[in-house]
Amino acid sequence: MNGMYDDGFGAFDAFGQEPFDDEEFDDLESEQADDGGEFDDGLLEEELRQAAAILDPVPAELRQLAMDAYALYDLDARLAELTFDSLVDAIPVRGATDVPRMLTFTAGELSVDVEVTSEGLMGQVMPPQPAGIEVLTGPQTLRPTTLTADAMGRFTSAAPPTGPFALRLRAGGEVVVTEWLRA
Amino acid sequence: MRAGTVPSTAYDGLPYTRGGTVDRKEVGALVQSAVDGDAAAWKAIVEGLSPLVWSVVRAHRLSDADAHEVYQTVWFRFAQNLRRIREPEKAGSWLASTARNECLKVIKGLRRLMPTDDPQLLDRISEERTPEQSLIDSEEEASEAERIRRLWEEFEQLGERCRQLLRVLMASPPPSYLDVSAGLGIAVGSIGPMRQRCLRRLRARLDAGRAL
Fold first, then answer.
1. Distance between CA atoms of residues A57 and B171, nearest Å
2. Lowest-pLDDT choice from A40-54, B5-19, B95-109, B185-199
3. How does strand A181-182 pair with strand A101-107?
4. Which candidate, A103, A121, A153, B133, has a CA 20 to 30 Å from the CA of A46?
5. Burial track B150-169 (b if 16+ CB lie within 10 A, e otherwise)
6. Per-residue pLDDT tens for B45-98?
7. SS3 state of residue B2
């Protein structure tokens, strides 16, 4: 699983492998000798915990959104897993800017290709078939953008999703929801 | 609800021992109950593990907007996958590693690493105090506030690795090393020694400041 994110994250990999003896810690040995090796690190960690609770707690509105997210646990819908994400799986093109984000979601034999750009969202249901599609933006999407896939399974939206989104498709008598993603 | 300070009722009375602080069996049972339709169990999971998710996100130093979106994405996806989580007792690690992966995607996609050292963060402490509290113990409060402010300042100035590790460790209730490992992509076995060194380093900074 880690291998998926290896590219471009050398610093993160080194985190796990280097036995922590980089320059950041060069002078630690002497510090340790100086204080006789006795200090209550548990206490200091607890002080940090208290400081975090005051200075950087989970924002209340976010906590509430996580509470509300239980509504997204949907027994009636089949989950379409993210099986391709250009951000992770594609080879970067040198010098290319504003490359579209290409995504593929798969639920059994059904798949949905989605392309997100700054101009909007377009995609195709495979195998090609008509479908009704809702663009969900949270646990309580009051008026979801609704799209229609034509006989070829193609659909477009002029509004790119902002923030987390999921597509809820009605196709061939079943409901499929794509994994939540941040575009 | 006051965020951050109150540990989940679901975990009250359970031993906060290192390595399994948010009791894994308990989490597994809560996930199973939520799968079976128990909304209170879901609430308990959110209360118990929200600070862990937030800490992992904060450790990656995203902009506030990105941090908020990653946090939401993680919980939305967790809800979606609830029935499919293979090891419910490892829900904390699932959340932590999903948060990490989403953070890495943000960093990779946007290439904008914005430090969260905006001065407002340090001012928030004053907003937390009611006028009554300030009147009663204003002097004591001021020195306590100052102590916390200094601690946070020194913490923020630690090297990147220590800052990251400590930011996740300070989640409340304290995360298990397995969850920390999932959230930061570091080996479980190296967390203990790193933690001790980082805390020593922080203590040294605090002592040095006091001596001035």
1. 9
2. B5-19
3. unpaired
4. B133
5. ebbebbeebeebbbbbbbbb
6. 999 999 999 999 999 999 999 999 999 999 999 999 999 988 999 999 999 999
7. coil
The secondary structure of B21-47 as a DSSP string is: SS-HHHHHHHHHHHHTT-HHHHHHHHH
Reduced to 3 states (helix: H, G, I; strand: E, B; else coil), residue A142 is coil
Asked if A29 is an interface residue toward chain B (Cβ–Cβ < 8 A), one would say: no
Residue B42, both tokens: 């879901």
Amino acid identity of residue B104, one-letter, is L
Kindly list the residues from chain B whose CB atom is less than 8 angstroms away from the CB atom of residue A50: 148
User: Is residue B164 within 8 Å of residue A12, measured between CB atoms?
Assistant: no
pLDDT in tens, chain A (183 residues): 443 433 333 333 334 333 444 445 544 444 444 444 557 889 999 999 999 999 999 999 999 999 999 999 987 899 999 999 998 887 766 666 667 899 999 999 999 999 998 899 999 999 999 999 999 999 987 788 899 999 999 999 998 888 999 999 999 889 999 999 998
Locate the domains of chain A by residue range.
2-57, 71-182
Kindly list the residues from chain B whose CB atom is less than 8 angstroms away from the CB atom of residue A55: 121-122, 124-125, 148-149, 152
Q: What value does the mean pLDDT of chain B take?
A: 82
Nearest to B43 among A16, A44, A67 (CB): A67
Peptide bond into B173 cis (omega under 30): yes
What are the structure tokens assigned to A71, written together?
Answer: 């509504």
* CA end-to-end distance (rounded Å), chain A: 21
ipTM: 0.80
- Quick check: B185 and B107 in contact, CB under 8 A? no
Specify the CATH class of A71-182 in words: mainly beta
Sign of CA dihedral A158, A160, A162, A167: positive
B29 touches chain A (CB under 8 A): no
Residue pair B99/B74 in contact (Cβ under 8 Å)? The answer is yes
SS3 track for B146-200: HHHHHHHHHHHCCCHHHHHHHHHHCCCCCCCHHHHHHHHCCCHHHHHHHHHHHHH
* Coil, helix or strand at residue A57: coil
Q: Does B199 touch chain A (CB under 8 A)?
A: yes
Look at B169 and A67 and tell me if their CB atoms are within 8 Å.
Answer: no
Q: To which residue do tokens 């061939």 refer?
A: A172
